């Protein structure tokens, strides 16, 4: 288009700027980046004198990367401006029509319309769970008829059953879908040999899938979840509730339904049957994904869970011995591993994420504690976490008060307020009702991946 007679000098200068990585990396040119899509659509329409069709794959990836690295709000604001041309406002016209004819976005995690698509009308969303347009479902991969035609074209009909076993099995609405990239890769390689023995299916999916978000969940799962994963690997189905409104901020709570939702949305699982508005039977779609699931999810879970349980055991032992330094030593590496910047910057109530994190950690050491209670009425308020262990004169309780320090707050001051709250609200009274002879009280203050633990003095209860 730099040679186009229909584009002016200013438009060509803009194109040259867009082609310069150094120029586009300068924050001072952010306004030009925000207007990139609108400008390109207008120039394409002007050059070709036709309406433009916009196709955007993996549209959610910039938000996912930004959430992982701590600039989610900035990326969201950039995309809002970037996608401005989708709004039904008066704009450039080509041959009497708007320059943009239609736009199609594809991705793994559905981003809410209110997040980056504000003001966009006629917005139809198709997902693996919800079908608004059957034609869109059929476009998500290869249908069985298209696969048969492809195999005939490449003279590969003899391996139809193998191809189905390895690459079929996805469901979009009511449409059966083969994984397109994997099938193309297989046909490309198999068609170059006449030796049937060399036409062996391979796993092409592993190299194209990311695991960062899934890895964050693995340490929070239970043995029952491991049994469900093994059932899937063995060819079974599991019944789950899916959260179609899952957001990046919501992932910070590591809810079980969100884990299965992510596995479904990222292609590790597919719908076997819809049971209700939110309830589904899920399964692993094919042999390729079964191998990947075993290697990248189930195996990683086993190692991750054992490590997580060991840390949970050490935390409990330290808590029952008044060892605040030991508790801090347990938490420090775990926070670096399991707390993403996304979690730390969640819009949810400040302490909620860390509360859930500690609950999961303590649950992993469940055989060492008794009577675990969360947000329980105690004294004149509600204690964040209490639990006990032992019997008779050795029965000991632990109360944890959790705080999150703001960016400008002194963590030591916040810790002191947590310990003072335990005293002022008389949380220790709950241990009388639990039959404890003594208890330890701790304040835990978090900021991002940092933690401060205080307290630890042994309190004796009445005889």
Task: Describe this structure in a few short sentences.
The protein has 463 residues and is of the alpha+beta class.
Number of strands: 14
Shape descriptor: globular
- Spatial order of the strands forming the largest sheet: 10-11-12-13-14
Which structural class fits the helix and strand makeup? alpha+beta
Total DSSP helices: 20
Mean pLDDT: 85
Instruction: For the record, give the distance between the C-alpha atoms at the N and C termini, rounded to a whole number.
Output: 88 Å
Rg result: 28 Å
In which range does the helix fraction lie?
A: 40-55%
Which parts are unreliable, with pLDDT below 50 for 5 consecutive residues or more? 341-349
Hey, roughly how much beta strand do the residues contain? 15-25%
How many structural domains does the protein architecture include?
A: 3
Largest sheet: 5 strands, mixed
Protein name: AAA family ATPase
Domain AAA-ATPase-like: 31-117
Organism: Sutterella seckii
